[in-house]
Amino acid sequence: MAPAFASPGAHGPNGEHLDGPAATASGSAAPRVETFTEAFELVGQLSGGELSVLIDRYETNEPVLNAILEVEHKGLKAQAKFHKDMGDYAIDDPKLLAALSKPGSHPLLFTLVAGDESDLLEGTLVVSPEQTHEPERSGAWPWLIGAAIAAAIVAAIAFVRRRQNRKGN
């Protein structure tokens, strides 16, 4: 069963904003940040080598397109690239993503400039240890290397013996 998420500014049957934390079926969902002001709502997801951000107007749920978006975390700043095809903003700065990918709480400050309007949105991206994508350290490598060396030695011995048998016949 796939997790269900409310998009930014999603409204319930009575018009209420569904801006509470989304429930997921498992703890492995991608890390998310959700925040809003009186004017805008923002939802970001860390996955696929980027922080993907959707923004809309709080009152109308209208998407905010072609704006300027910058994110800051502990002195690191990055400008987002707007994707017209998806309507999202992507932050792919390697230093910022490396910092955000570590387990913990990461306070973020988003600066949004949409036409004549501007706003600051603060949110926290929480990354659990289960959500990190660091390579797993496994004890299998030494065993595999040893097995490959042993197989190469056995093959070399078999080759030499076969050659010797041919010369003897």
CATH topology of the largest domain: Immunoglobulin-like
> How many individual β-strands?
9
User: What's the CATH class label of the largest domain?
Assistant: Mainly Beta
Q: Using only CA atoms, what is the Rg?
A: 26 Å
Helix proportion range: 10-25%
Order of helices and strands: EEEEEEEHEEH
- Please state the average pLDDT score: 80
- Estimated share of beta-strand residues: 35-45%
pLDDT < 50 runs, ≥5 residues: 1-6, 21-27, 134-138
Domain unit count: 2
Which class of secondary structure composition applies to the elements? alpha+beta
- Strand order in space, largest sheet: 1-2-3-7-6
The geometry reads as: rod-shaped
Task: Describe what this molecule looks like in 3D.
The strands form two sheets. Strands 1-2-3-7-6 form a five-stranded antiparallel beta sheet, with no helix packed on it. Strands 5-4-8-9 form a four-stranded antiparallel beta sheet, covered by helices on one side. The chain folds into two domains: 32-131, Immunoglobulin-like; 139-169. It is rod-shaped. It contains two helices and nine strands; from the N terminus they run βββββββαββα. With 169 residues, the chain is an alpha+beta fold.
